[in-house]
Amino acid sequence: ASVVMPYYDRKFVQENSFDTVFTSTGILGSKTYTYTILKESTNKLGFELYLIHIPGFLDRKEVYCYPDEIEQFICFQLSFVDWISKTEQKPDIIHCHDHHSGLIPFLINHSIPYRNLSSIPTVCTIHNGQYQGWFGWDKISFLPDFDLSKAGLLDWSNCINSLATAVKCCWKFTTVSPSYLEELSYNSNGLEKLFQMEKSKGIGIINGIDTEVWDPEKDSMISKNYSVEAIEQGKKENKKLLCKEFGISVGKPLVVFIGRLVGEKGADLLAESVSTCIDRFDGKLNFLILGSGDTSTENTLLALSKKYKKNYGVYIGYDEELSHRIYAGADFLIMPSRVEPCGLNQLYAMRYGTIPVVHKTGGLKDTVIDISERNGYGLSFEALNVESISDTIGRAMDLYKETVKLKKIRKEIMLLDFSWHRSAMEYVELYKSLITT
After folding, report:
1. Distance, CA of 370 to CA of 348 (rounded, Å)
2. Positions of E strands within 275-433
3. Whose CA is closest to 273, among 150, 195, 359, 185?
């Protein structure tokens, strides 16, 4: 497999060498632009990595938040299709991701210059269906000549919708969990009817994690490494140092949150949930939060530090090493997400023997089985409100007291297989079914 991405002027690009393998020009409306295909020289990632560099569009530091974002991603897609067409490449599969490459299945099937690519099977993975790459019909000139009778494939609600186009035109689409596939049919920011109509093309495959990076036995970022056999002592040592770092008492269950402080993640419920739980349970548990996002949520969480000094710690920002230390030292991870197509934090947590406490949605529903069910190993709640969160934290505290059961569950979750190897096998089967069609 080879990976093709937009070029961004970030650390990986700055610190590695790339070879120019192709240069050409493209047309965006009335403008001509130059694009260059760069290939990472050493295959250090274990696969061929290509970057598409376009001066004025794809040569910047940030991924999002530019006023010409639509033009950026249209140029990226046009350049990719133009490159493989001109070099007469015929991949077995073209696998697109989200709206950023959602026009490609349409372009290779219906644009006049690229008809030589029309036999290539296409797959599109939807990581987050809330973002769809909308733009107005006034920008239709950005696309190359195509069969105008196919214009309806681009349209949804009187605008061009890149994600809707992908779902209509790709051979198969995948979501990053089976439950998220189901949820899109009733919660997909206006595309519900489309997902209902195209359901037979969909398949849910849970994302994987890198079990080499997330391995408490080898992780250089945590205070003390530990194996499944030594989990109790290992977590105890990591928890002790983590609590000391944040000035909170060590002899209580530690509940943590790691992630973006935004509405999708339920972060607006965190402050009230923390306050309610500490008061309700007479300070017999601790909370630790790592994240950044909405400014008002950040300020509210910071303000709690004065009220609950010995039971609460917070770090506003992103710190990868700290996240590893938190996973290793925590007892429970809270994820009150409103939308979670797959979720990775719960998978990381379980690798470190940290029990997830999750809202029953999307991939969280697929990867965390409540302890009340057969072979259960986590805690989950249906209603998303402070009361439900507090009640489920109460169940977590009860589990914490059942030391034999707690130890058993910790060992079980460390051994669960959520590796990319498992997920990759499902993708391989999907690819094979399309190649032989």
Report:
1. 18
2. 286-293, 312-316, 332-335, 355-359, 379-381
3. 359
* pTM for the whole structure: 0.91
- Site of tokens 């997830």: 356
Integer Rg of the chain from CA: 24
DSSP line for 272-308: HHHHHHHHHTTT-SEEEEEEEE-HHHHHHHHHHHHH-
pLDDT score at 437: 60
In angstroms, how far apart are the furthest CA atoms of the chain?
70
**Tokens describing residue 7:** 């070029």
Beta-sheet pairing, 379-381 with 355-359: parallel
Q: Which residues of 277-296 are buried (b: 16+ CB within 10 A; e: fewer)?
A: bbeebeeebbbbbbbbbbee
Per-residue pLDDT for 242 more than 70?
Answer: yes
Q: How many residues does the chain have?
A: 437
162, 131 Cβ separation under 8 angstroms:
no
Q: Cβ(291)–Cβ(261) under 8 Å?
A: yes
Taking residues 93-114, report their average pLDDT: 97
Q: What is the spatial distance between Cα 322 and Cα 327, in angstroms, rounded to a whole number?
A: 9
pLDDT at 436 over 80: no
Nearest-10 Cα torsion for 123, 126, 132, 133:
-50
Beta bridge partners of 313: 288
pLDDT tens for 264-311 read 999 999 999 999 999 999 999 999 999 999 999 999 999 999 999 899
CA distance 408 to 5: 43
CA gap 93, 149 in Å, rounded: 26
The answer to whether 139 and 78 have CB atoms below 8 angstroms apart is no
Closest CA to 255 of 414, 404, 379: 379
Give every CB contact of residue 91 below 8 A, 6+ residues apart in sequence: 2, 84, 120
Q: Edge-to-edge strand order for the sheet containing 312-316?
A: 312-316, 286-293, 254-261, 332-335, 355-359, 379-381
Question: Could you give the 3-state DSSP secondary structure of residue 141?
Answer: helix
The residue assigned the tokens 């990867």 is 367
